[in-house]
TrEMBL record:
One of its GO terms (cellular component) is CAAX-protein geranylgeranyltransferase complex. It holds the Pfam family Prenyltrans. Residues 35-362 form the Prenyltransferase alpha-alpha toroid domain. It is an enzyme of class 2 (transferase). Its cofactor is Mg(2+); Zn(2+). One of its GO terms (molecular function) is metal ion binding. Its EC number is 2.5.1.59. This is Geranylgeranyl transferase type-1 subunit beta. It comes from Corchorus capsularis (Jute). The keyword Membrane does not apply.
Length: 376
């Protein structure tokens, strides 16, 4: 592909990408002292109606940007601002389709393209030689469809699921696209979420995926993105949420017999609790600054485990407000400009905190409970 496909599990830019120069806090207005839902709705409505020029280089990830926008509006109880039927038709237009069932085992993945940029037209013989169906884009597509109340039983799920097994590797991990790319917990999670939303597990070998996940748990209790890597908030979320979706761990483990769990729950809980910093925010790794998005990545893990009650909610609420923009949306750090990624995970964090005016969150799928249950 012409550009690296971004996905909703890319967490942040501290993994080697260059960050924009941080404006001084004095250059920005003081943070609002309360969660301003109306400003956030206006921020997302702008994203729904146009693509700001800052995001034009991310056009290949248009489905991901749409997921943040539409699911964000649903969290904010403002789904009435969305033309649901039009959105569903638009999303469905991105699915790749084989010419016949025989092609489902040709090594390609017949999921969803991230945008028109990767959805190249067929040749003069009607052959789509360039199929760039992507796991993360497929997760986003299905999540959007659930958010707008579309009946997923009516889509061509067989093409998605059977061809998705082409992406699973011998060690249980997944590539995001059939032409080859990195394999790590992000795409195991995408595969698990896709199967869960489609209510059909033909798309993956769950036992192999489970073993890969367990091999990613580090000595300190957290999970690295691949076996042997440093524990990471996003990787830990992908591991725990995947195991929950696949049925290998129960909800609210701490109220049950955690000693029989497939993961080391006490170590995992201890690692997660250590991620809340002195400023009240959550860090993604040890010795890193607090970052808005980890209030979801770590907070959702704690919610699944039953340990969310142990965090300092008042301090977290206070930290998140310092990242809230007067224009709506949230920034990565206090004193910087908002972006759609950190805005969405700011909304999910406030939903976990049970902020009035927000819909409850399904922690495992990263969307509202209503969307997860199909109640729109």
């Amino acid at each position: 592909m012409a550009a690296r496909e971004w996905n909703p599990l890319d967490y942040d830019v501290e993994e080697g990408e260059e960050e924009e120069e941080t404006p001084s806090p004095s250059a920005l207005s003081s943070p609002l002292p309360y969660f301003d839902r109306d400003r956030h709705v206006a921020f997302l409505e702008m994203m729904y109606n146009l693509m700001p020029y800052h995001y034009q280089s991310q056009e290949i990830n248009r489905l991901t940007l749409a997921f943040f926008t539409i699911s964000g509006l649903h969290l904010l109880q403002a789904l009435d601002r969305v033309d649901k039927e039009r959105v569903a038709d638009w999303v469905l237009s991105f699915q790749a389709h084989p010419r016949s069932k025989a092609e489902l085992n040709n090594g390609q993945f017949y999921g969803f393209h991230g945008s028109r940029t990767s959805q190249l037209p067929p040749d003069e013989n009607g052959v789509s030689a360039h199929n760039f169906g992507h796991l993360a884009s497929t997760y986003c597509a299905l999540a959007i469809l659930k958010n707008v109340g579309f009946n997923l039983s009516t889509i061509d799920k067989e093409s998605i699921l059977i061809s998705m097994r082409n992406l699973q590797q011998p060690d249980g991990s997944f590539m995001p696209v059939h032409i080859g790319a990195e394999t790590d917990l992000r795409f195991v999670y995408c595969a698990a979420a896709i199967c869960f939303m489609l209510e059909d597990w033909r798309g993956m070998d769950r036992e192999k995926a489970k073993e890969y996940i367990l091999n990613c748990q580090s000595y300190d209790g957290g999970f690295g993105l691949t076996p042997g890597l440093e524990s990471h908030g996003g990787g830990t979320y992908c591991a725990v949420a995947s195991l929950r979706l696949m049925g290998y761990i129960e909800d609210d483990l701490l109220s049950k017999n955690a000693s029989s769990s497939v993961v080391n729950v006490p170590l995992l809980l201890d690692w997660c609790m250590q991620r809340q910093a002195a400023d009240g925010g959550f860090q993604g790794r040890a010795n890193k600054p607090s970052d808005t998005c980890y209030a979801f990545w770590i907070g959702a893990v704690l919610r699944i485990l039953g340990g969310y009650k142990f965090i300092d909610k008042v301090a977290l609420h206070r930290f998140l407000l310092t990242c809230q923009s007067e224009f709506g949306g949230f920034s990565k750090y206090p004193g910087t400009l908002p972006d759609i990624y950190h805005s969405y995970y700011g909304y999910t964090a406030f939903s976990l905190l049970e902020e009035p005016g927000l819909n409850p969150l399904c922690a495992e799928l990263g969307m509202t409970d209503l969307a997860a249950l199909g109640i729109i």
